[in-house]
Amino acid sequence: MKFVVDKEDVSKRLDIYLSEKMEDVTRSYIKTLIEDGNVLINNKKEKAGYKLKLNDNIDVTLVERQSENILPEDIPLDIIYEDNDIIIVNKPKGMVVHPANGNYSGTMVNSLMNSHKDKLSSINGVIRPGIVHRIDKDTSGILVVAKNDNAHKKLAEQFKVHSIKRKYVALVKGIIKEDSITINMPIGRSSKDRKKMAVTDKNSRNAVTHISVLKRFYTSNVTLIEAELETGRTHQIRVHMAYIHHPLVGDEVYGKKDSKFKVEGQMLHAKYLGFIHPTTGKFVEFEEDVPKYFKDILNTLENKEKAAN
Predict the structure, then answer these.
(1) Of the listed 136, 138, 251, 289, which one is catalytic?
(2) 190 and 109: one domain?
(3) Domain limit, last residue, from 106, 127, 161
């Protein structure tokens, strides 16, 4: 894995920077990588407390640990498009994108290892072959997977400069009065709970989410929204919506438990992805409607709304 330090990360400790960039691995693993010389700054070994400088080149070699023996698994996967460079997957709710933290089976990567072994980019090592970005376990929707290193690099660069277009659909609690909102609040690791993210000025990165109201369900006191990401921070939509007091329905991490809708995990679907194809140079776009459980809940809400009127 390769990183180049930009202005907003200057003077950060090396270990903190990597923990923010590599959110799916533990701090102890990062510390071990640094101590064992598997992290190089401008081709030199540095300590965990090294203060980053502008344009520092960081090379991280992900060493395979014994527990990281990722096995191919025959798990059905909804592939909506594929060519020599990319795979577009419509990930179901409940599936983890790649192995991490002791969870080494049942993931999208395990499925891809079965159907596309030796046909995935190697940049992210053995636990994340082909994975350029990810969405949460309980978020459904579209992901792009890289089949070779060249495609991976070009896609990663688009994510870095925020030129990739991403749109989500979510059901949130409460009635949003405005037709559109832009939330521009920095997101970083929560100081109270390291497993959570939060709006904070401490060790954070800028985060911008554009919200458009699609439908207000006054009877049920919920709002259907479209969220377009200008940046792509961990849990960005979930954190931003909770911050403005409209947490996602089903999100027990950033909201309160609500048995009214009987769903496990947040109602969030990555419906649209648009980017420059790494080989053709043409803009391509993919779109997938919300899954059946989401549609069923929307139909129930519509019927309640009609009955009330």
Answers:
(1) 136
(2) no
(3) 161
Q: Are residues 156 and 240 in the same domain?
A: no
CA 80 remoteness from chain centre: 19
Identity at 221, one-letter amino acid code: N
Query: For residue 188, is it within any domain?
Result: yes
Distance of CA 256 to CAs 69, 160, 284, Å? 37, 33, 38
Query: How far apart, in whole angstroms, are the C-alpha atoms of residue 229 and residue 275?
Result: 13
Number of domains in the chain: 3
Instruction: Based on the fold, state whether residues 302 and 225 are members of the same structural domain.
Output: yes
Q: Could you list the pLDDT tens digit for every one of the 309 residues in the chain?
A: 889 998 888 999 999 899 888 766 677 788 888 988 889 999 999 999 999 999 999 999 877 554 456 789 999 999 999 999 999 999 999 999 988 766 778 999 999 999 998 899 988 777 789 999 999 999 999 999 999 999 999 999 999 899 999 999 999 999 999 999 999 999 998 888 878 999 999 888 899 999 999 999 999 999 999 999 999 999 999 999 999 999 999 999 999 887 788 898 999 999 999 999 999 999 999 999 999 999 999 999 999 999 987
Active site residue 136: yes
- Residues spanned by the domain of 253: 165-270+293-308
pTM for the structure as a whole: 0.82
Q: Are both 105 and 169 inside the same structural domain?
A: no
DSSP 98-153: S-BTTB-SSSHHHHHHHHSTT-S--TTTTTSTTBS----TT-EEEEEEESSHHHHH
